Amino acid sequence: ETGVTQSPTHLIKTRGQQVTLRCSSQSGHNTVSWYQQALGQGPQFIFQYYREEENGRGNFPPRFSGLQFPNYSSELNVNALELDDSALYLCASRPDRGWGYTFGSGTRLTVV
Amino acid sequence: ELKVEQNPLFLSMQEGKNYTIYCNYSTTSDRLYWYRQDPGKSLESLFVLLSNGAVKQEGRLMASLDTKARLSTLHITAAVHDLSATYFCAVDSGNTGKLIFGQGTTLQVKP
Which of A99, A105, A108, A110 to mutate to test the interface with B (most CBs of B within 10 A)? Predict the structure, then answer.
């Protein structure tokens, strides 16, 4: 059973809208990362947070933004949705002492 | 920029056979991860390899890491149908926590 939960599991949005995806990590997991996985491809790194500060970002435009909260939850916000944003969005967390990342079950976003 | 390449991308094999999936990466890294993904599901962690020469085994799967050759292998012994899935390797870019994934290898094990 994964210690990382994501909500919602599925979501349909219209092009141009905004969306917020949520992730809840295990206690003590101060590092959280977000990934986008298009169909048939490997996950692509969006950004990473450590103790509520962004400390790494992939090649995604500024309309992808995030927040991390002290209670080990985090959010991924995407503005001005485009059709190509349709994908599985995964969050992953890691404890301070340890190198293994635990992935959540993901949110399947469809933009129409 | 770090690139990670897996081969083969698709593998169809008979139950009971052995095979190896290869993961090459382009720049130095000391951390390599293997994940399994079933259709429509999330990523399940299989192995974390943290040093040159690291070898880990779990059931019919064994992973190894050669940081000098920038190569990791995932060896499947006596495959069974339950191993059918897509397998990803991922390399920690600059040891920053940014994982760069390979394209994935879809394994189909036939009875």
Answer: A99
